[in-house]
Amino acid sequence: MMKTRFLMLAMMMCIAAMTFSACSDDDDDDKGINVPASVEQALKQRYPSATGVEWKQKKSYYVADCWLDGKESNIWFDTNANWLMTESELYWNDVPAAVQTAFSNGTYANWVQDDYYFLFYPLQPMQYVIEVEQGKLKYQLFYSEDGGLMNTVDISGKDDTIYPPVN
Fold first, then answer.
1. CATH code of domain 30-85
2. CATH architecture of residue range(s) 90-159
3. What is the pTM of this model?
């Protein structure tokens, strides 16, 4: 009886250890990366009010995960410290009325809204992204500021990172 309890306990502990070790927190994987001083300086020059900065590396990009004006943001730089894109999380109420109307009248209006983002680029027009899901399907809908649907990306079961456009 005692041996059975011990084996059950040992088995449960092994399962728990495997379960927790299989989980990965992206933020923890990128701690301690070596960010060039020029990239850190570029962030300070562009966004001096950025707080809680944690650096990640995504492919060849340096990404400052931080807070800007009360919004969680990701600020992207290339290896030459060129600013490429700022992505900030939004609330539905922060999405422009034209985008809200276009979404509400569009194909995905009945899908569950998941997240909202604002994308700001150095040379391209601003974009708003609405992530929607239905069952196992998940899409990112890219809108112009005036409500035009610019792009639809299927991210079902994929990495949902929005990368800067390639020029």
1. 3.10.450.360
2. Roll (3.10)
3. 0.79
